[in-house]
Amino acid sequence: MSEYILETRNLSFQYPDGTKALRNINLKIEKGKKISVVGVNGSGKSTLFLNFNGVLKPTEGILLYKGKEVKHNHRSLLELRKNIGIVFQDPENQLFSASVFQEVSFGAMNLRIAEDEVRNRVNEALRNVGMYEYKDKAVHFLSYGQKKRVSIADILVMKPEIIVFDEPTSSLDPKHSKQMVKIFDELNDNGMTVILSTHDVELAYSYSDYIIVMKDGEIVKQGTPVEIFSDDNLIRDCYLEKPMVLEIFQQLCKNNKFISEKDIPRNKEELFHVLKVLG
Description:
Layout (H helix, E strand, L loop, with lengths): L3 E11 L5 E11 L3 E5 L6 H8 L7 E6 L2 E2 L4 H10 E4 L12 H11 L4 H14 L15 H13 L5 E5 L7 H16 L3 E5 L3 H7 L2 E6 L2 E6 L1 H5 L2 H6 L6 H12 L12 H11 L1
Parallel strand pairs: 3-8, 3-9, 6-7, 7-8
Antiparallel strand pairs: 1-2, 1-4, 4-5, 9-10
Helix pairs in contact: 3-4, 3-5, 4-5
């Protein structure tokens, strides 16, 4: 039986200027899954994430964490933010301390835990993102990709159960994007629920267990990567693109009766295997 770690029920959000950013959002996020949220700019992805950890309070509807409704009081929000961490798109908006160690230790220090435990957590978090050897370096000397990894360590030090990434591979070159995805996989392998928003349909298709498509503050469709990206009407209406791997496979299916739909590839390696079988 599925265990839902995060749910929204009829959740809506309106900004003070009257902008209706979210409309009647109903979601159930399974524990330990890899979730991608896709949609054009302005579709409501970032606003949804800020509702997830209580930075924003729903105008209507409710948020549930582990089956319990989130109350927007100090104690409830503190507990929520320990367990649901957000890594923002631009690390410059998240980093503010002088050195890498000071930066990553800040959240753990606020938990009022022992100094030795803080040090252990910081070292572990920095190792997890490949930044341990930079722990004494000044933050402003880091590259953009390194700052991204430190911003992840900022969250990992809190030992959350859910980590949320807002456009995590934007502005990264292919090498550093792959490093970032490797970090996601390692976190998920250790039991963490990973949620990310992305414009990269190739990443969403190859990486995700489940995809949520948003448009104009609403959820248009939810499903597996194959279900989502096989829906040509959805792709057109939500201004998405079909992942290249899936598009090539579908063309092969049209021209070869020996290819079965059950062999749908999710990445280049799986597509190459299909091509190899075809000879």
